[in-house]
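Morning F.,

Quick status update on the modeling queue. The single chain you submitted on Monday has been processed. Sequence for confirmation:
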Amino acid sequence: MQRKTRIQPRSNDTFDIDILVILGSFARWVDVGGITPKDGLDKVEDIISEHETYDKMGPETDSPTIIINYANNTKVELVPAYIDNIGEYADGTPAFPKGRGYWIPKRNRWILADYDYDAEYISKKNEETDRYLIPTIKMLKAAKRNLFPEMKSYHLEVLAVNVIPTIVSYLKNKIYPIPSPLLLCGFFCIAKDEVLKSLKIPGSKSSNADNYSIDKNSLAEIFGKICNYCNSLIKFDGREAIEGWRELFGEPFPAYG
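Structure tokens below.
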């Protein structure tokens, strides 16, 4: 929720909350005797076991997180994290500046996540786009949930950060209005090509947004179909338009009348 791009879950969906548990900081890499991802996970387990309320809830270890399930369909995932005071990866690749970003576990190794910087960057771009960016990201996430759920939310956000400001800038320079349907249509028509590229927030220490198992060609094909679909919807208004957009966004989109 730090990036303010979370959308309301559907009535039967689980509401996921990710919480970083900052356990300290890393100052240097060592060959032996260092803190492993399992050590970090064990430390979080120890912290939970000290609190009877959470311990009774039966927390589950699902590496690299510990999951606590609440009765109201809410799931909290606790992620062990260490502040980066090293300034480089284990192979010596620079990761400046020191003191920014967190080392978190992934696939039994430590990776950098630049959460604070990423959130600030998206907020900055939102202001530069006259606050069109974040509302558009939320609409795109609703479409993702309905049509391409295999894409990770962070990947979609970074893609939107690369595409939406360009569309807004073009429309402003042409002194055109900036309606949401045009932003959504423009996004998918541009993103069908951009999604094939490696994506990263400029200056971020986080891994590339597309650094996971995803079929980019399949995504590009889906985006192309949505682009054509949106182009056809723009010609309609009233009931036809609302029913058409409801097909894109699914259940949360209001029905006509």
